[in-house]
């Protein structure tokens, strides 16, 4: 039996390098391993907690799907779908909600940080919080548990959500006997947090991202914006303290990385380092960018693939959800 690996990305912004390095690349590596059965999806209903514009939702959602495919996800090998096309997830989400202590949700970091920010600025604790945001971890638990997932590749900020899914699963199993597989997260330790243009974590919330499939000219412009100090070209520079080097090593070969490390230590101008970064990134991203643009230009083809993936997903999720319903006493025969 192959181990089930599952991960989702919510369409709340254009996919950036942080998403790629921290989430997509490691997930694709797992997908290439024969020991695993990957299920990768567009978490569009998670995106709805934030995106309340029809066109934006549609565009971003397609963008996530096209990104996975452009980077080489094989939809024949993986189960590749849109969350909203698999209704069993939402049915299970309600069931799990009835096993999720409210206090557990109060402690979930995304919600907690909104509350803290609100209180800090003198607003009411729950200002701007919709119930989708509050129950976000329950829907995520349903995503994971419905597929009897063993492994969830995510970025560091998602660890707590996977732990919550385990907690909910344990609570259910305790009441009804072994039902849900307890999932484990895997994170890419090395690159857990990729820095953005300003040195903080690259994140759409900080407006410091480099979109993964940015056109070359704009990509170069963004790279030129990376914050550097005023040391002269000949001054030795610490590669491990440089955003440019952190990004460079994600796209360069080992040999190139070693060479660049030496150039930093012996002195390289920031302009030169940025140029080299652009080159190595552009070579790496040229082909997938082209595939991405092609897919974005054929929405019908993309849709068909996703619907086909959802059918595959539902073959697996329907019988398991029935089992769960039998256990809780929702039996209609
Ligand atoms: P953002 O911070 O831009 O809102 P998301 O929260 O949508 O990004 O993250 C999607 C996935 O990408 C998550 O698994 C997250 O951990 C990962 N990720 C996001 N930003 C980074 C980063 N700077 N470095 C590494 N991984 C990241
Ligand atoms: N919450 C994840 C994020 O913000 C996206 C997500 C939704 C997810 N459901 C999931 C990730 C299930 C892994 C497994 O990045």
UniProtKB/TrEMBL annotation:
Where is the motif ('HIGH' region)?
11-19
Give the source's domain of life in one word.
Bacteria
Q: What is its EC number?
A: 6.1.1.2
Q: Which InterPro entries match?
A: aa-tRNA-synth_I_CS (IPR001412), aa-tRNA-synth_Ic (IPR002305), Rossmann-like_a/b/a_fold (IPR014729), Trp-tRNA-ligase (IPR002306), Trp-tRNA-ligase_bac-type (IPR024109), Trp-tRNA_synthetase (IPR050203)
Chain location of the short sequence motif 'KMSKS' region per the record: 201-205
GO terms (molecular function) for this protein are: tryptophan-tRNA ligase activity
Please tell me where ATP binds in this chain.
10-12, 18-19, 155-157, 194, 201-205
Give the EC class as a word.
Answer: ligase
How is the quaternary structure described? Homodimer.
Q: Outline what the protein does.
A: Catalyzes the attachment of tryptophan to tRNA(Trp).
Protein name per Swiss-Prot or TrEMBL: Tryptophan--tRNA ligase
Q: Source gene?
A: trpS
């Amino acid at each position: 039996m192959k181990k089930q690996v599952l991960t989702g990305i919510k369409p709340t912004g254009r996919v950036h390098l942080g998403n790629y390095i921290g989430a997509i690349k490691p997930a694709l590596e797992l997908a290439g391993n024969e020991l695993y059965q990957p299920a990768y999806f567009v978490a569009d209903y998670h995106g709805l907690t934030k995106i309340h514009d029809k066109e934006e939702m549609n565009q971003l959602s397609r963008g996530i799907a096209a990104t996975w495919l452009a980077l080489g996800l094989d939809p024949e090998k993986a189960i590749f779908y849109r969350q909203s096309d698999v209704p069993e997830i939402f049915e299970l989400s309600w069931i799990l909600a009835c096993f999720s202590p409210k206090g557990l949700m109060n402690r979930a970091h995304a919600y907690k940080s909104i509350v803290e920010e609100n209180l800090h600025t003198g607003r009411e604790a729950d200002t701007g919080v919709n119930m989708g945001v509050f129950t976000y971890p329950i829907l995520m638990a349903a995503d994971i548990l419905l597929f009897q997932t063993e492994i969830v590749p995510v970025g560091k900020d998602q660890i707590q959500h996977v732990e919550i899914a385990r907690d909910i699963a344990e609570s259910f199993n305790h009441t009804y006997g072994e039902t849900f597989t307890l999932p484990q997260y895997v994170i890419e330790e090395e690159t857990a947090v990729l820095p953005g243009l300003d040195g903080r974590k690259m994140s759409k919330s900080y407006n410091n991202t480099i979109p993964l499939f940015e056109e070359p000219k704009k990509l170069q412009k963004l790279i030129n914006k990376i914050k550097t100090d005023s040391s002269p070209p000949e001054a030795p520079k610490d590669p491990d303290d440089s955003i440019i080097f952190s990004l460079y090593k994600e796209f360069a070969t080992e040999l190139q990385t070693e060479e660049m490390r030496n150039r930093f230590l012996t002195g390289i101008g920031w302009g030169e380092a940025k140029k080299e970064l652009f080159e190595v990134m552009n070579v790496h991203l040229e082909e997938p960018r082209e595939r991405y643009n092609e897919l974005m230009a054929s929405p019908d083809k993309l849709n068909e693939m996703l619907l086909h993936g959802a059918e595959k997903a539902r073959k697996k999720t329907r019988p398991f959800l029935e089992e769960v319903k039998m256990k809780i006493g929702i039996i209609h025969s």
